[in-house]
Amino acid sequence: MRRGFGERLGLPGALGPLPLAPLAREYKELMESQLTAGLRYAGEALTDPQEAASGDAFVSVLDGVTLCTPRRRRLVDEAALLSLADARPAHAPVLRLLAGIRRHDPALLRRVLLYQLLPLLRQGATGLGLDPAELGLLAKAARTLPVLDEHRRTAAEALAPLWSRRRLRACAHALAALGPDVLRADPRLADLDARLRRVLDDCDRTLASAAAGTDPARAEAGYLRVLSAASDDDEAVRGLIRLGTPPAGTDAPLAARPADGGRVALSWPGRTGVHWRVLRDGPGRPGPVPGATGTASTATDTDPPVGLRVRYAAFPVRDGRPTGVPLVSHPLLVAPDAEEPALDDGPGRIAVRWRRPRTATATVLTLTGPGTGPGAASLHHTADHAGTHVFTGLEPGAYTLLLTARHPSPDGGTVDSPGVRLTGTVHAWPRPLTALTAEPGPEDGVRFTGRGGEGSEVRLVTWPEGTAPAPGTELRTAELPAPLPWARYGDPGRTTPHEAFAGLVSAVTVLGERALAGPGVRLDVPGPVGAPRAVREAGGQVRLLFDWPAGAGAVHAAWDGGELRTSRSRYVREGLRLPLGPGPRHVTLRPLAPGSRPADGTAATVVGVPRAPVGVDVPPEAVVRYRLLTRRRGLGRRAPYAVEVGAHGHDPAVPLPDLVLVHRDSVRPRHPEDGTVLLRIDGAALAAAPLQTRELPPAPDLSRPPYALRAFLLGDAAGAVRLEEPALTTLVVR
Asked: Is the dihedral of CA 345, 350, 351, 355 positive or negative?
């Protein structure tokens, strides 16, 4: 028969002091596993839920931790906990943590379970799987203990981890947060408090001796001894930092400099085999720089306290404990400067670009330079959010810009960064050209005039189609296209391109290395007339032949007493024939731009420029006449024996073409090669005598009719001389 709990000892002896702190290093991890498993307290993992609900299994915690079933009572030791973890995978993490606690201290398992049960029983929780004989006793005892609020529970649960890491100063703060009533109610906490006070009192005496002494070696040994006992003793840390602080005006063994993104870059001389731990020391307690541990001799503080002056110390450590005086930096004001600053100059201005640090609330720009007196600040501007600003109205000269980032300080004020100093020069720029006009001349070419650009060189250029910059665009002279060789601004003379031109002519004002884009004007200039020549035809008509000028909309022909305009399609279809008569003439051919008028007409948006005319001299009509001289040869038949040739109207200085007389049987010759040449008179001989007679050579063919004779003109001048033939009946012999 099972005895009731406390039957021999009585209630006071059976209960003993109940725990008000778990004092287990693994307690935080245990709580996280409990919440994941859905357990109110860790003891629920010891029993089967169905058996616990029916009362067939329960946990006893007052006389050791025992698992009770109708058949047996079993002490919950490490082996039992590990066995249950293998059998219950859902609760395995909780059970394995309990096994670790039991291994570390057999009495600690009961303490942890009681610590978790007391607040539940105080709240009236049921179904906890607890021995019914103990349930009422624990509930009654719980009401007599001090109640821990959230703050005191947090302090109670932090004691064991802090003690295990030798953070004795933090451990003392946690015990102070629990209060005297809690320490009196839990003897183990009172014992911990007494032990802690003894250790810290010894540390305080050592600190006082080290601070008052004059021997740095003894002070270093004292501070290290304190840190070996209380690793979080800030006074010992600061004492070592004071020992390692470099004198003002000397190089610090640890270099701390601002880096991009508001960070601080750290570097120091490395030592083989030495591990380092970097701390940041400021107005508060010294704290570790995240990630700044190991053998590397560089580190980065990614989140320094903005607006405060701090210094950094790299401690040599072994097994997590400092082994000597640290390498210390000079104090550094954490106020990052503006990043990626840049200056660009323009006409009378300086443009500033920068990237504001993420911790800054404002950026202050102070520009000094010429214009307001020696050394005076010419402009001052505060920009809260913008990353750009333009100073305008500046005179040419050298300027200095101080770019300062303004940060909030912890005391509610502001702290300015050291500032970035930039220098720039406002250069003299050309004056802009405000208007450009193109005026075609009555005869040839185009004259460019405009407004503005005083004191600047004006160049006329062409840009690739669609890339002409807008007027006022700032350019560099080296980037400009080559000036147009035929277009000169303000030149009283007029020029024209050698070839056809259709496009935008843009003006650019230039001063030294700088230029400003100006307005433009569209021109349409046709190409020149090529290879003109004249061919006389019958009836005083003259046919003009030439290569059609590129880009021309029409060609205007003019002569004394008339003019004619022809389009390209008409010229290709019909040619160009002019009624000039037999006399000498001079004809001019002028290409016209599309839509332009013969003299000075222009389109609405395009200036059409007529090109200078090309002249063609048409000589007077030269005529060569010939007739056959015949004599009678029996039976009334007349046979030719000579040819009479006359020439008139020709220019004596211009040679005439050759004349050939061609013979063919039966059919009249159609061209010089269509028969046999009987006679040839060269052009010089024709021009020498206005009328001459040439005997026909004796030929058998002339005695055997029927046959036909015909004369032709041959040579380069044949088209300019008209051949007047006799009647056809005189040329055919039958």
From this structure: positive
